[in-house]
Amino acid sequence: MNKILNISIWIVAIVLIIVALGFVEKSKDEVVFERPLINIDYETENRFISEEDVLSQIISKTDTGSLLLENFSVNHIEEKLNNNHSIKDAQVYKTVNGKLIVNVKQRRPIVRVFSKNDSYYIDEKGRLMPLSNKYSARLLVVNGNLNEPFAKRYKFNYSNLSDSVVDKTMLDDIYKLADYVDKSEFWKAQIEQIAVNKVSEFELIPKVGNHKIVFGEITNLEGKFEKLMIFYKKGLAKTGWNEYSEINLKYKNQVVCKKRKI
């Protein structure tokens, strides 16, 4: 009798487990989609994208009624977000309790280029980045005698551009110069403009001091900035920041200056 009772109990238990598993599976499949948790990297002041921008990439205007979480493909959402010009990286995943989590990192531009009939950014990785109609970044600008259209150059990564590339442009030198300035707290605070003159050489316009800095070509980049720093500390510290109209770094082992006309 006890044996029959034990067998009956085991049969009932197994049936209950099967029913419970079926219910859990059904519930999991029928989880109604809720607003995802969107985390955007706002470590810098840049605001190229918002939560609503990200949400519009996940839910289209044609979606109506109750949506099921299982219908949203994590890989598809990541692919759409990573194709956004303002996004550096997007990671999307679902939690065990049925939530959709979206983590987004923005691209960080380091210089704005004003070409002949075009304007765009170069980001920290050396890639071209279009302007946003929502936000304008305040950063170093380059202008002057420059004709580098965005449409022709945007696929280049100037941080990895080889000197042997046939279609090499001035933008790789601009990136190297802007990247050096960006990585120095002092020069980032001091230099506000890079100008390309008529002979395709660089001139720097500082925020402090009524003078221009003739930088020349990109060669010996670090040495020129070191030379300028020494001149700032030992020269301008004595004469004042407005003594000269031009500071020329093109010559080896010396700084050539033009005094301001009174």
Topology (SSEs and partners):
Blueprint: H1 2-29, E1 37-40, H2 51-58, H3 74-82, E2 87-94, E3 100-106, E4 109-114, E5 119-123, E6 128-129, E7 140-144, H4 150-153, H5 171-182, H6 185-190, E8 191-196, E9 202-206, E10 212-216, H7 221-239, E11 244-248, E12 256-259
Parallel strand pairs: 1-3, 4-7, 7-8, 10-11
Antiparallel strand pairs: 2-3, 4-5, 5-6, 8-9, 9-10, 11-12
Protein model, in words:
It is a single chain. The chain has 262 residues and is of the alpha/beta class. The protein has three domains: 1-30; 37-106, membrane protein fhac (Ubiquitin-like (UB roll)), CATH 3.10.20; 109-259, Cell division protein FtsQ/DivIB (Rossmann fold), CATH 3.40.50. The chain is 33% helix and 24% strand. The protein has a nine-stranded mixed sheet with strand order 6-5-4-7-8-9-10-11-12. A three-stranded mixed sheet has the order 1-3-2, covered by helices on one side. β5 and β6 (128-129) form a beta hairpin. The N and C termini lie far apart (118 Å). Mean pLDDT is 83; it is low at 21-29.
Features:
three-stranded mixed β-sheet; 262 residues; alpha/beta; 7 helices; 12 strands; elongated; nine-stranded mixed β-sheet; single chain; Rossmann fold; Ubiquitin-like (UB roll)
Low-confidence stretches: 21-29
The name of the CATH architecture of the largest domain is 3-Layer(aba) Sandwich
Order of helices and strands: HEHHEEEEEEHHHEEEHEE
Helix fraction bin: 25-40%
**Average predicted confidence as pLDDT:** 83
* Beta-strand share of residues: 15-25%
Number of strands: 12
Q: What radius of gyration results from the CA coordinates?
A: 29 Å
In CATH terms, what is the fold-level topology of the largest domain? Rossmann fold
